[in-house]
């Protein structure tokens, strides 16, 4: 698969990134390099390799799953700049 200048412009538009016309060929090449790297990764044989979260094996710390008191909305909301009816109040951002 190859990304051309028009496809790079479309991707930039979908990502809401302004890219100047003269920078589109370089962006298309960068996309092609990324896709080439992904194709290389797809060729690697990972049969029998266990997934891991880091390069050094370690066991995640666990805690007891116990019920806590909770129910402290007044204490929690005391830090909020604006709280109404037991909830955090935030400005409307979507019309």
Automatic annotation (TrEMBL):
UniProt keyword annotation of Protein biosynthesis present: yes
Pfam families reported for this sequence: GatC
Gene3D superfamilies according to UniProt: Glu-tRNAGln amidotransferase C subunit, N-terminal domain
Gene Ontology molecular-function annotations: asparaginyl-tRNA synthase (glutamine-hydrolyzing) activity; ATP binding; glutaminyl-tRNA synthase (glutamine-hydrolyzing) activity; transferase activity
PANTHER family: GLUTAMYL-TRNA(GLN) AMIDOTRANSFERASE SUBUNIT C, MITOCHONDRIAL
Alphabetized NCBIfam families for the sequence: gatC
HAMAP family referenced in this protein's UniProt entry, alphabetically: GatC
Protein name as annotated: Aspartyl/glutamyl-tRNA(Asn/Gln) amidotransferase subunit C
Organism: Roseovarius pacificus
Lineage, top ranks: Bacteria, Pseudomonadati, Pseudomonadota, Alphaproteobacteria, Rhodobacterales
């Amino acid at each position: 698969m190859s990304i051309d200048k028009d496809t790079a412009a479309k991707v930039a538009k979908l990502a809401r990134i302004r890219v100047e016309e003269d920078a589109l060929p370089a962006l298309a090449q960068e996309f092609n390099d990324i896709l080439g790297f992904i194709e290389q990764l797809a060729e690697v044989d990972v049969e029998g390799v266990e997934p891991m979260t880091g390069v050094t094996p370690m066991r995640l710390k666990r805690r007891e799953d116990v019920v806590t008191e909770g129910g402290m909305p007044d204490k929690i909301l005391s830090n909020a700049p604006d709280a109404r009816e037991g909830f955090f109040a935030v400005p409307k951002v979507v019309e």
